[in-house]
Amino acid sequence: MKNFSKYLFFIPFFAITLMFCNTSCKEDTDCKLQIIVKLFNDTTVVVPNAQIWIHQNDISLFGTTDATGKYEHTFVWEAIYNVKATDSTIIDPNAIPPTYSLRTAEATVRLKPGETVSKVIYVK
Hints:
By secondary structure, the protein is of the alpha+beta class. The protein is 16% helix and 48% strand. The protein contains one helix and seven strands, in the order H-E-E-E-E-E-E-E. The strands form two sheets. The chain has a four-stranded antiparallel sheet with strand order 3-2-5-6, with no helix packed on it. Strands 4-1-7 form a three-stranded mixed sheet, with no helix packed on it. The chain is rod-shaped and about 100 Å long.
């Protein structure tokens, strides 16, 4: 009986050690969104400095594409968002006021947990 009491002390110690060694890592649930804005007439040309509006119900997010025509954002939860891209280019800078060309496009994206969703939007 004396030997059994010695082993009884080590059973909780091994159980606690096993519990700490058997923990798993937290899953990556961030949803990454990458939007690429291109011209509708020539799909090889990206549109830098295009304004991006991501919205759904009471969520509204504004951004601008970089020099390569990309905009990236990370969301915590998965959702379905409406995306609007707008580009204004000066046609005639000598006119008073200058003449602009406004190009827009809209799309819908569905974010998935742990994945990067890429969407190409063609403005015309």
